[in-house]
Fold these 2 entries.
Entry 1:
Amino acid sequence: MEFDMVGIDAAIANAFRRILLAEVPTMATEKVFIYSNTSIVQDEVLAHRLGLIPIKADPRLFEYRNTGEESAEEEGSEIDTIQLQLKIKCSRNPRASKDSSDPRELYLNHMVYSKDIKWVPIGNQADVFADCCIGPVHDDILIAQLRPGQELDIVMHCVKGIGKDHAKFSPVATASYRLLPEITLLEVVEGEKAERLKQCFSRGVIDLEDINGTKVAKVVNSRLDTCSREVLRHSDLKNVVKLGRVRDHFIFTVESTGILPPDVLVTEAIKVLVAKCQRFLNELDSTAME
Amino acid sequence: MNFDLWETPTVQADGADEGCVTFVLHDEDHTLGNSLRYMIMKNADVEFCGYTITHPSESKINFRIQTRGGIPAAEPLRRGLNELSDVCQHVLNTFQARVNEFKERQEQPME
């Protein structure tokens, strides 16, 4: 999603960007219980890959799990944990022809995809989340490759966390902003020079208008410019334009991993900033009372 | 004078000047620090406002406010927090209104 924020200062726009990347909570696999892994992928590498798979579960419906008191084997309650299971075994395909060498024909289940991850509801989760299926966002993430006789038997616990703790909790593929470019022509450019000027910028930025028979260059849409500054390489054109940025017009680009839609992510990020301010206001008030 | 916020608040008096205070904010970084500094600098009573991250491994910031006219430093801090909160609320409302408008416009060609 792309949206424009106009009239705000860089400090606050940057704060939103930082919060989108690191402080909007999501659910991701934290604990991986490997009961059996005879594949060629090492346990820790497999666990790392599983942690990075985005899980489609609305984090606003879950609580944080408080660490510390619970031992490592603690199951976790239904309010803060999602349990997922991956149980797959590769076997030889009895129906394959004698002399084929294509692994897709020879073996069954030799590629472990994220669609093989199943949700195991704990407690009342089956009723609460009956309509929205909890599982990986994308079905076609390749996790591991197996050969006959190898199997994976894994149970995963997903908890709520923020990107600051580990990047797997980041809800955005990326979030960035750029400033709106501002191109001003300092003098009238016409004819062949105008043609060359048009070539210097990205397509659609400069248009040639027909005034009294000659073509005159006009800035039509500076938003499309990628700011390559090609025009400054030409000695006769570089004094004709002034390249700059509009200081308070931010063009945000937010790409979500699929857990939450990008407009929801932006609203959540703004709420996180409000919550931070509130926290300190409450602290101020409570210390002032003492 | 040091205020330790979000942990056991300890106040160390730095003479009698209440206008120059360094607040220690825990679990914060540039995200809140820079935006809060921007909001507080707009206040005309504030003579100096800045923040530093003492060490990048520790997530705490030293936020210093110096006021002119003997105003207690907690006041511009409170005002800055409220104003930042208001700015965010306004952004939230405007954004949600525009998104709803956009979604309605998307649905109209189908009707």
Note: The CA atoms of residues 31 and 43 of chain B lie 20 Å apart.
Entry 2:
Amino acid sequence: MSSSAAQPFWRAAGMTYVTYSNLCASLVRQCLKEPYRSEALSREKVHFNVSKWVDGKPEKPTIRTDTPE
Amino acid sequence: MLRHGSRSLFNRASATSMRRRRQFSTDLPAETVEDTKFVESWKKMNPNMDPPKTPSAYMKPRPPTPANIPSKLTVNLVLPYDSVLSSKEVDMVIVPATTGQMGVLPGHVATISELKPGILSVHEGNDVTKYFLSSGFAFVHANSVADIIAIEATPVDRLDPNLVQKGLADFQQKLNTASTDVEKAEAQIGIDVHSALNAALTG
């Protein structure tokens, strides 16, 4: 029973629910009034680093961050 | 004597910890459901040891429908960073389900619905509190507890009309210039969210 149910347009375009939901939330946050808007946008900041492992050793990590160093 | 020790300890521990928590929809008398077929075959093989608990013994069954319809609905509105309403007793909530505005009264049938961006209104006596939800889910349990989860829920007076109008115009523009499926989907999502915000501000 693969493609029997009608899918929402975003799933048909390849987006997952999590991506859709996070996108909706970020759009709502951008429409807030001032003091709430800056608090809300601080909630969206991410900071992580990812490193691929090759032959049992980590390669150089890529750092993705929104907080200035 | 020792065989039953662990079972009663488990029951007593879970019962006291349940009394101290807030009321959840899955609060039930501390009954552990045993997987009878497994327990019987274990006892045949190994009658001297207590059978280990299977995952189904730890699962709490769904809350049963009570005999009398409760007079109030218990609502929990939770966000990833805050619980806006927690076990609040209200008369009715109207949730923005993808299939339309759905009113939930005490005694509502158990339902799971996906929400679209829209307004959640909480009715308590003559007070109505409205929150704009960015999308999420609403779970109504048979014991008249409604759990509403969303990523963002703001009171409508925190929304800025100018930013909403500007966003709506921007995304309508993006929809016209979008080429790939993903861009079209994102533009369409932008339009949906901003129209819902607009309707919330003007309605």
Note: Chain B is about 35% helix and 30% strand.
